[in-house]
Amino acid sequence: MAIPKDPIILLSYINTQLRDFYPNLDELCNSLGLDRKELIQKLAAINYRYDSHVNQFV
């Protein structure tokens, strides 16, 4: 499955997936075959950080 390239759409997609289907970022990345570090870097570029307490990029 291809994930969105646009960082804002990617943010929305990832947060929706985390909210609806995955208990944490590691399980999302493993299930979707994503590189965790790369995903974090892409969203950090638009000033979002993963918060494990709320299981979302904020």
Report on this model:
The mean pLDDT is 97. The protein has helices at 7-20, 25-32, 36-44; strands at residues 50-51, 56-57. It is 53% helix and 7% strand. It has a two-stranded antiparallel ribbon. By secondary structure, the protein is mainly α. It contains three helices and two strands. It starts with 6 loop residues before the first helix and ends with a strand.
For this entry, give a set of tags.
single chain, 58 residues, mainly alpha, 3 helices, 53% helix
Terminal CA distance reads: 24 Å
What share of the residues lie within helices? 40-55%
Mean pLDDT: 97
- Count of distinct strands: 2
Q: How would you concisely characterize the structure shown here?
A:
By secondary structure, this protein is mainly α. The protein is 53% helix and 7% strand.
Question: Layout of helices and strands, plus pairs?
Answer:
Elements: H1 7-20, H2 25-32, H3 36-44, E1 50-51, E2 56-57
Antiparallel strand pairs: 1-2
